Amino acid sequence: MVNVALSVVVHAKPGKEQDVADFLRSARPIVEQEEGTQAWFALQFDASTFGIFDVFPDDEARQTHLSGGVGQALAAQGADLFSTEPSIQNVDVIAYKLPGETA
Q1: Single GO molecular-function term (predicted)?
Q2: Mind listing the domains of the chain with CATH numbers?
Q3: Residue 2 three-state SS
Q4: Which of 41, 49, 39, 29 is nearest to 4 (CA)?
Q5: Measured in whole angstroms, how far is the alpha carbon of residue 53 from the centre of its chain?
Q6: Cross-strand bridge partners of residue 39
Q7: Around Cβ 10, how many Cβ atoms within 10 Å?
Q8: Where are the alpha helices (DSSP H) in the chain?
């Protein structure tokens, strides 16, 4: 069951666009180890704007994810990769469709 999500938007520094894309790709194995992360997506909106969207069964799983490996890596590498602080929003999921599940 999915009840809550995170929406994260980051803006790459000029010349760091490929580094941000590579960073996001490299996060997948970390997220795969998180039992509470039900789905995770790394996104590219335009040449320098990227995002992460992930969903969780509850706020506890969401907070565990935020304090986990990807969150720590964002904090550690953010100053080098991003032109502004990541925009992180907690959101509620009102409907969803995942393989093998129904809301």
Answers
A1: monooxygenase activity
A2: 2-90 (3.30.70.100)
A3: coil
A4: 39
A5: 5
A6: 55
A7: 22
A8: 17-32, 59-66, 69-81
